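Quick log. Single chain, no ligands specified.
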Amino acid sequence: MVFSEGNSAKGQKSGPNESSSNKGMGSSSSKGGNPWHDPTNGRFTSGPQNGDGDKSTDLAAIAAAEYAQQHALEKSEGKCYTYVKRALLAAGVASHYLTGAAAKDAGQELEGLGCRNDLKSGDFKSPYDAPVGSIIVYAPTADAHDPGAKYGHIEFRTHGGFASDYYSHNARTGPASNGMTGRGRTVIGIYVRH
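-> predicted structure:
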């Protein structure tokens, strides 16, 4: 699948049962194009340099996070897992469109891509400690009552925040002082591709 320059997922709608056709998917529409996007094959091939001293994610995972941030909507439409799947495919982390509907159940799919759940390492006190390019998976808390709660949430850690179907400087759980739980979600996985 080739993604042409100038296409963007921004503002394009897709149905709740989006298929592997990946409607509205495209590559960077930023000025000058994406410096690590190869227009000859439509893939991200090397990604940006990981100069923040992050522990470990590979360049393709960082490129996927950047792709997600560049294609994020103004606000969430409840399609976090769809947008994460698109970014993984566009950056070449995944060779096929991942299955599954609930973000909270993404762990097995992510492990199949060579990601490891590093949450149990004890190195993370909040999602803000996750390395750039990692994928953070959330489950709903008992007090979550929003319409999408039963699906959980999933997002990339980016250089300046968090991206899925929307971009925010804050994690889904709120400020770092909330730790791993807040705003109706709790972190159940920080998946890092080594």
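Residues 40 and 120 are 40 Å apart (CA to CA).
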